[in-house]
Each structure stands twice: as C-alpha cells, then as structure tokens.
Amino acid sequence: VKEPVSKITEVVEKEGYIQKAKIADGGKKLRKNWSTSWIVLAGGKIEFYKESKHPALANLKPGYKPEWVDLHGAHIEWTTEKSSRKNVFQITTVSGNEFLLQSDIDFLIADWFNVIKNAIDRLPKE
Ligand code: I3P
C-alpha cells in the first residue's frame, strides 16, 4: 500500500469543507453515509479529514493518517443517478474506490470539480 509522502513539500492546490460519501471500496459497494469533510487537494491526491479535527492539528498527531484518494488515472464525472441530492460528482479511482462529493452551493462545487479534473488531467495515468 502506497502512503502519501511528507506534506511539507507538497503544494496545497485547494482545501475546504464539502459533503462526502464513499460508495465503493475496491469495487465493493458500501452503504452510503454522507458526512462533512475538510478535503485537501495536494500532490496528486485528496485527503479527507473529519470535520471536527482541524487538519493542521491532526497533522501534528504522530500516526494520524487521514483517508486519502490517489488521483492517478482516476475518473471524475457529474452524476444525477447516484444521489437524490443536487450538485453531486463522483470520483472513481484505479483501485475501484468510489466517492461522491456534493455541495448545495453551485459555484463552490463547480470550482472543486474543475480543480480536481485539472489535477487528474495533469497527472500521469499510473
Ligand atoms: C441512505 C441515506 C442517504 C441516501 C441514500 C439512502 O439511507 O438516506 O442520504 O442518499 O439513498 O439509502 P440510510 O441512511 O438508511 O443508509 P442521498 O442523500 O445521496 O440520496 P440511495 O440508497 O438512493 O443512495
């Protein structure tokens, strides 16, 4: 299992609060469970931090590892079928993990979609 490398040298492209639901792990369907996440896009990956944990503080805790998504070769697309909510897009990783991201605020979610799509397009596919 690849681990994200040290954060110090990575440029944070974007971070902020967003609604997140993981719906598949390694191709296996999961029960949908929306939660607010602080998400950080940096170094070809997205990290998800629990809402209550300030990421800067969480990072100082030895051994704390946020959930993260490898964007190399990932797919991103808007979906109206995977949720009854509006403004939902899905990220599917090479390893078969599926995440839904959502916000009621149109410009905010559109911004996230574009930034993540650009990041994916710039990365080598593996
Ligand atoms: C799910 C929960 C989700 C909903 C999902 C439900 O129920 O209400 O919010 O997704 O719909 O199954 P539970 O909490 O009992 O697991 P959306 O909010 O995205 O619609 P789904 O089964 O149609 O995905």
Protein described:
The protein has about 130 residues and is α+β, with helices and mostly antiparallel strands. Helices cover about 20% and strands about 40% of the residues. The chain is built from 2 helices and 8 strands; from the N terminus they run E-E-E-E-H-E-E-E-E-H. The chain has helices at about 55-60, 105-120, and strands at about 10-25, 30, 35-40, 45-50, 65-70, 75-80, 90, 100. Strands 1, 2, 3, 4, 5, 6, 7 and 8 form an 8-stranded antiparallel sheet that branches. A hairpin with a 2-residue loop joins strand 1 (about 10-25) and strand 2 (about 30). The longest helix has 17 residues, at about 105-120. It is globular, with a radius of gyration of 14 Å. The model has no long low-confidence stretch (mean pLDDT about 90). It binds D-MYO-inositol-1,4,5-triphosphate.
What Rg is obtained from the alpha carbons, in whole angstroms?
14 Å
* Morphology call: globular
End-to-end distance: 14 Å
Q: What's the rounded overall pLDDT mean?
A: 89
How much helical structure, as a percent, in the residues? 10-25%
* Bound heterogens, unique: D-MYO-inositol-1,4,5-triphosphate
What's the main sheet like? 8 strands, antiparallel
Strand content: 35-45%
What's the multimeric state?
single chain
Low-confidence stretches: none
What string, H for helix and E for strand, traces the elements in order?
EEEEHEEEEH
What structural class do the secondary elements suggest?
A: alpha+beta
- Count of individual helical segments: 2
| Number of distinct beta strands | 8
